[in-house]
Design goal:
Layout (H helix, E strand, L loop, with lengths): L20 H23 L8 E5 L5 H9 L4 E4 L2 H10 L6 E4 L8 H4 L3 E7 L2 H18 L4 E6 L18 H10 L3 E7 L8 H18 L5 E3 L6 H6 L4 E4 L1 H4 L7
Parallel strand pairs: 1-2, 1-8, 2-3, 3-4, 4-5, 5-6, 6-7
C-alpha cells in the first residue's frame, strides 16, 4: 500500500491492472506533487497538517477529472463559470468539492453558488453583496451549506501591474462585509505571487495580512496560496490551500 498523502489519497503512480495510459500519467504526476507537498510540510514543521490540494482543471476534459477522482482527488478548481457549471453537473456522482478560483462577475454569482463550496476571488463589496443575495435564494431552495469566501488580496507593490485582488487596506472592510453576509462564511485570504520576483517575500507578507485578519475574525484562518511553481514557498508561510494545475494535468489541451 502507498503512504497517505494530501487530500487523503494514496501515493502510487505505478501502472495498475486495467489502468489506461492517461490515468497512469495523472497518477504519476499526482504522486510527485503530493510528495512535494509532504516534504514542504515536513520542512515547515507541519507534516501532520497537510494543506488541501485543489487541482485546477480549467480547459481539461471531464474524463480527466473523473480519473482524478478515482485517484483520490476530492477538491477541484475552475475559473470560468460556464465551464465549471457544466462539469459540476456531469460529475455530480463523484462527490467532488468545487472551488471557484477565477475573477468573478457579479452577474455570475447566482450560477456559482449552485455548485461551488468556495469562492477564492472575492475582491470587492459589490461581489460580496451579489453572493449574499444569491446564497439567500439558494439556501431557501436547497438548504445548502454556507459559501466559503476567500478575500483575494494583491501582493504587488505596483498597483498598476497587479494580478488581481483587493489592496491590503481594503481587506478589513471586505472581511466585515462577508462576515455579515447571509449564507457567507469568511474563510481567509487568497493571493497569487507577483510575476518575476521570488515568491517568499510575497507569501511572508500574505502571512502577516492573515494574522491581522485573524485578530479581528478568529475563524478566518485559511490561506489560499501556492501554485505549481511556488507551492513550497507558500507552505513555508502557512498556506492551507494550494491551487495546482499544470504539474498534475500537464499542458492545457488546444482550445478551439
Amino acid at each position: 500500500m502507498g503512504e497517505p498523502s494530501a487530500n487523503g489519497g494514496e501515493a502510487g503512480g505505478r501502472d495498475a491492472p486495467g489502468r489506461d495510459p492517461r490515468t497512469a500519467e495523472l497518477a504519476g504526476r499526482l504522486e510527485a506533487v503530493r510528495g512535494r507537498i509532504g516534504a514542504a510540510a515536513a520542512a515547515a514543521g507541519r507534516g501532520d497538517r497537510l494543506p488541501t490540494l485543489i487541482v485546477v482543471t480549467k480547459f481539461h476534459p471531464v474524463e480527466d477529472i473523473r480519473r482524478l477522482a478515482s485517484l483520490g482527488v476530492t477538491d477541484v478548481g475552475e475559473n470560468r463559470d460556464q465551464e465549471a457549471a457544466g462539469k459540476a453537473e456531469l460529475l455530480a456522482d463523484c462527490g467532488l468539492t468545487w472551488h471557484f478560483v477565477g475573477q468573478l462577475q457579479t452577474k455570475k454569482a447566482k450560477s456559482v453558488v449552485r455548485y461551488a463550496a468556495a469562492v477564492h476571488s472575492v475582491d470587492r463589496p459589490q461581489l460580496v453583496d451579489a453572493l449574499a443575495k444569491a446564497m439567500r435564494i439558494q439556501q431557501d431552495s436547497t438548504g445548502r451549506a454556507p459559501l466559503d469566501c476567500f478575500i483575494q488580496v494583491s501582493l504587488e507593490e505596483d498597483a498598476g501591474a497587479h494580478r488581481g485582488g483587493a489592496a491590503p487596506s481594503e481587506v478589513p472592510l471586505l472581511a466585515d462585509r462577508i462576515a455579515a453576509g447571509e449564507g457567507l462564511r469568511l474563510a481567509g485570504l487568497m493571493a497569487v505571487a507577483p510575476l518575476g520576483a521570488p515568491p517568499g517575500p510575497a507569501f511572508e507578507k500574505l502571512a502577516g495580512l492573515s494574522a491581522l485578519l485573524v485578530a479581528q475574525h478568529p475563524g478566518a484562518t485559511a490561506i489560499s496560496a501556492g501554485m505549481s511553481q511556488d507551492l513550497e514557498a507558500a507552505i513555508a508561510f502557512g498556506a492551507t490551500h494550494l491551487r495546482i494545475g499544470s504539474d498534475i494535468l500537464g499542458s492545457r489541451p488546444p482550445v478551439g
